[in-house]
Amino acid sequence: MEICSTMDKGTVVVNFTIGFGNNLFQYTYAKLLADRHGLQLHHRAIPEVGVKESIANINNSLNAVIVNDTNYKQILYFENLENCNVVINGYFEDYKILKPYLPEVRSWFDKKEITNTKDVILHLRLQNRLVQISHNKNHISVDSFKSALSKFDYERLHIVTDAEKWETYSLDDIEKIRHQIKVGPNPPSNSPWVEPDQSLEYMNHLIEGFSDLNPIVHCNDAETIEGSGGLRGGFIDDFNLLRSFNQVIIFNSTFSWWAATLSGAQNVAIFNPWKIAKPPEARRNLGSTKYPGWVSWGSADDLYFKKYGIK
Q1: Residue 61 near residue 7, CB atoms below 8 Å
Q2: Is the pLDDT of residue 3 over 90?
């Protein structure tokens, strides 16, 4: 724990949401802002990556500024925040604000060495993304993933996923997932269910479609962490596995985006547009991340479910 005892300057207060990747964006933006404007930081710990809790002595007599996803660039670069407290209340999924500071940002987190330079790893977040319609709309075909793989010189494909198993699924397996989500932190009231047959079709499409590549699959069957946004216990092992690869494929996941960003992986393919089912004006720019060695692939033509009419 770090304790800031002064009341002579303002404080950046971080309101973390659910989601590990979301929290890394929120912490990083807050620290950039605090360092740039000479402010204190107040936030809980993110112990999995070495971020300690920071407790500030907040002067509540100062003016409060709310930072959200509409004003974050103006606040970071142009506002005079002297004698202000700042409340962080957004997601800040913007690779451009991090790009000038990448070495510095990486130094704020525990380091994980890259140990695998010959293989490629693909992260597939499934579970609630199989059964809830807002995520299901974004799914792409195995052929699209294989087109990304063609950009790499590799020996073996690894797949790391929050799926409990990597073998043919049944409707009972889909019902189990729906039950886990229903009683967890992302209930169906946030996003309606898709038909079970549709979830089943896509899961088995992935398993069958990759079978000719004989992938090494790393599943996670731990319990979902309450209030985490869908993370399973032991998620940091998956995160560090991703960080240990020099070649990474990312699809619609801030979890794997951060893994590749922090590791400094030299060959990264990322699907673009990011979360294509959202209206174009609501899509983040992460799919077009232009860090050294990163390339984008994809379009609406890659979507598995054409019936939604997404362009």
Answers
A1: no
A2: no
